[in-house]
């Protein structure tokens, strides 16, 4: 159950902490006071969808945290919502991914609001209600997995058959491309090596002339650099014999002379190695052009060309094995279809066997909710299809991830009237009561400790309101019920009564949430009866209603 909630900067709720208790807790207040916001905060703390608009204006983030008892242990669930819309979830201060968090807290509370009423008014969801009632969700999950595997394998087969149809042309193209690449047989980074060689061969004449000229200028000519420096060395030797302070400069000069000799010798040897070979230049240039052509066609770099060559080899091998692949996929599909058909037939039978039980239970609950002679039907239909490979009783049928059953709820709220689709005939008040009946029934199948209701009293009044109040009270004997209501009949049944009001202070909206004392409960229930005006008659009615509620 939910023990406590702490809220900071969530919508118009600046900061608050609120305890919750066992039994039936009702929440009342004027329209727009913040009742649904409180429920939204609870739902958000348990993995509900959140947006950045949930963050209070003027701040960067909102925090909602609840303390819950789960399997006899105290736990905390916290969501931190940024105004950007992103959020983080924590369970007992351990961070969780959103989906994992939702799975972790799913069993804590069940919410009923406008979304859930829209859910039952969508005939596509009726099969989900039936499956939950019949405890078939695990079987349905297995069938959905099989369906996905079957669909994927069928797509793989279609792709393989399409590839086979295109295989001839594709194989010719790939073989041509492979031959083109292997004919040239480039090596990784060969283009960089060739480009360096090409530059040397193209400028061989200039390199040779410049090397010889520099060698002559350094050592060979009468006025060479070496001779000039050698003359300077003699003069330095003379003055160093007079003043030893010059000696370091003499050594430096001798090092320079040695470096000049090394440079001269290096240039001489370099010149002898230069090969002015027009034929080799032509060969290198031709090779570079071939490689550049491959690069332009197959990826822009030699690495991409070589990778594409390897991909071609792999694809050519795969094309050779297409027939075997098609045979294997066909065999798998036949096996998967057989398994799917068996599982779907089993589900069909289990659903058929559970329909009457669901109808009887819902009719019983509806009678308790002041729809005493309602007729509720669950109709199962199977649609034939000539394009299907799944059969039921020898006839091919349309199928999907949940099998081949088409489920729809029908209702006749009045005796003598033919049952019609629930989505066509149910009034707002009837939908609320049908949902309450289903919630009550499903507690026996998939129980949670806490039920939260918003708008459960939509469209009902009078005796129907009293019946709904009784149903909620009976549920609260074994569950924690939190319910937003506008009906005095429901408020009078409450073990705990929260009232929400809001006011303006310093230009901001302030929300006040209080548990009401007995006298305050009476005043609030009177207002639910008659608005702002309180008369002795309405006061007596409220007290009588509360007295009846308490037995």
Provide structural commentary.
It is a single chain. With 551 residues, the protein is an alpha+beta fold. Helices cover 56% and strands 19% of the residues. It contains 18 helices and 17 strands. Strands 2-1-4-5-6-7 form a six-stranded antiparallel sheet, covered by helices on one side. A six-stranded mixed sheet has the order 8-14-15-3-16-17. Strand 1 and strand 2 form a beta hairpin. The longest helix is centred in the N-terminal third of the chain and has 48 residues.
Number of helices: 18
Strand content: 15-25%
Give the overall shape, derived from the CA principal axes: elongated
CATH topology of the largest domain: the name is Rossmann fold
Largest sheet properties: 6 strands, antiparallel
**Which regions have little confidence, pLDDT < 50, spanning 5+ residues?**
none
The CATH superfamily name of the largest domain is P-loop containing nucleotide triphosphate hydrolases
Arrangement of strands in the largest sheet? 2-1-4-5-6-7
Q: Architecture of the largest domain, CATH level 2?
A: 3-Layer(aba) Sandwich
Overall CATH class of the largest domain? Alpha Beta
Rounded to an integer in angstroms, the radius of gyration calculated over CA atoms is 43 Å
């Amino acid at each position: 159950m939910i023990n406590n909630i702490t809220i900071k900067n969530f919508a118009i709720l600046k900061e608050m902490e609120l305890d919750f208790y066992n039994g039936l807790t009702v929440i009342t207040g004027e329209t727009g006071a913040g009742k649904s916001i409180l429920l939204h905060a609870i739902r958000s703390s348990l993995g509900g969808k959140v947006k950045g608009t949930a963050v209070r204006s003027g701040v960067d983030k909102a925090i909602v945290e609840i303390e819950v008892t789960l399997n006899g242990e105290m736990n905390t669930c916290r969501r931190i919502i940024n105004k950007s819309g992103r959020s983080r979830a924590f369970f007992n201060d351990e961070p969780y991914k959103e989906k994992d968090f939702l799975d972790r807290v799913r069993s804590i509370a069940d919410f009923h609001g406008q979304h859930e009423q829209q859910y039952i008014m969508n005939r596509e969801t009726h099969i989900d209600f039936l499956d939950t009632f019949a405890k078939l969700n695990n079987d349905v999950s297995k069938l959905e997995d099989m369906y996905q595997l079957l669909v994927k394998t069928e797509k793989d087969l279609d792709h393989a058959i399409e590839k086979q149809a295109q295989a001839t042309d594709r194989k010719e193209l790939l073989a041509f491309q492979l031959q083109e690449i292997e004919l040239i047989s480039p090596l990784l980074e060969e283009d960089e090596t060739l480009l360096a060689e090409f530059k040397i061969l193209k400028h061989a004449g200039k390199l040779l002339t410049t090397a010889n000229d520099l060698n002559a200028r350094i050592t060979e000519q009468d006025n060479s650099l070496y001779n000039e420096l050698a003359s300077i060395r003699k003069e330095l030797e003379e003055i160093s014999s007079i003043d030893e302070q010059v000696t370091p400069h003499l050594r430096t000069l001798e090092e320079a002379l040695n470096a000049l000799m090394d440079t001269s010798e290096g240039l001489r040897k370099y010149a002898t190695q230069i090969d002015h070979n027009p034929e080799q230049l032509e060969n290198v240039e031709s090779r570079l052009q071939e490689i550049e052509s491959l690069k332009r066609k197959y990826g822009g770099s030699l690495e991409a060309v070589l990778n594409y060559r390897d991909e071609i080899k792999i694809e050519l091998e795969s094309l050779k094995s297409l027939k075997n692949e098609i045979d294997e996929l066909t065999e798998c599909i036949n096996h998967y279809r057989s398994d799917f058909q068996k599982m779907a037939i089993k589900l069909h039978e289990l659903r058929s066997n559970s329909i009457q039980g669901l109808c009887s239970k819902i009719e019983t609950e509806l009678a308790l909710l002041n729809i005493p002679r309602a007729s509720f039907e669950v109709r199962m239909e199977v649609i034939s299809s000539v394009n299907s490979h799944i059969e039921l009783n020898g006839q091919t049928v349309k199928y999907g991830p949940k099998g081949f059953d088409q489920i729809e709820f029908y209702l006749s709220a009045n005796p003598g009237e033919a049952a019609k689709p629930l989505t066509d005939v149910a009034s707002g008040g009837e939908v609320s009561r049908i949902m309450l009946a289903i919630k009550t029934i499903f507690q026996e199948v998939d129980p949670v400790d806490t039920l939260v209701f918003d708008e459960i009293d939509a469209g009902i009044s009078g005796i129907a309101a009293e019946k709904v109040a009784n149903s909620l009270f009976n549920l609260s004997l074994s569950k924690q019920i939190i319910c937003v209501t506008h009906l005095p009949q429901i408020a009078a049944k409450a073990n705990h009564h929260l009232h929400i009001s809001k006011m303006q202070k310093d230009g901001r909206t302030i929300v006040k949430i209080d548990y009401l004392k007995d006298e305050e409960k009476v005043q609030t229930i009177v207002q639910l009866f008659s608005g702002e005006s309180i008369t002795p008659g309405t006061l007596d009615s409220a007290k009588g209603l509360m007295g009846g509620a308490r037995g």
